[in-house]
Write a structure and sequence with these properties.
163 residues, mainly beta, five-stranded antiparallel β-sheet
Length: 163
């Protein structure tokens, strides 16, 4: 089943189409995803005064194609608390959200992460290395099995992937 969602590019007035699909492996994660996945090129959010590209509300980043400014986002079954800004947390040699939270947005030039705690606990995390796992977009993604991004090293193309 393919669904189409429309998002507005902030300030540009364009309306890109995002294809959403159901991913059974994402739905099996301990993070409790719904299984709905989409590619997002236009959603913006403001977190603690910083505006950046974010997944739609209720979604977490599971992949990124930074040169095209496209994120792969998976819908969480629930979240805990609001999105928050992380400006310098480090784990596994990269900028990372606090352990237990996942990435929902990124401002590459400022090295800011928008983070959020999922409604269920993160139980494990690993580094997906360069060249990393790829999907059919193609873009670097956390591997199948319901992982979400929890950190990124932009110049080395590394992701922290949590579930």
């Amino acid at each position: 089943m393919v669904l189409t969602a429309i998002t507005m590019l902030a300030g540009c007035g364009a309306a890109p189409e995002d294809e959403a699909e159901f991913d059974v492996e994402v739905a099996k994660s301990s993070l409790s995803f719904t299984g709905l996945v989409l590619y997002d090129a236009g959603t913006r959010c403001t977190v603690n005064g910083s505006t950046m590209h974010c997944c739609p509300s209720g979604y977490a980043m599971i992949g990124a194609h930074l040169s095209n400014d496209v994120f792969k986002c998976a819908q969480l079954s629930s979240t805990s608390g609001s999105r928050f800004l992380d400006t310098g947390g480090r784990r596994n040699g990269m900028h990372a959200c606090p352990y237990g939270s996942v990435m929902v947005g990124l401002h590459v030039s400022n090295d800011y992460l928008a983070c959020q705690y999922p409604g269920t606990s993160v139980v494990s995390e690993f580094v997906d290395g360069s060249p990393g796992t790829k999907d059919s977009y193609p873009m670097h993604v956390c591997m199948a099995g319901g992982y979400a991004m929890s950190g990124i090293h932009v110049s080395n193309n590394l992701f922290n992937c949590a579930r």
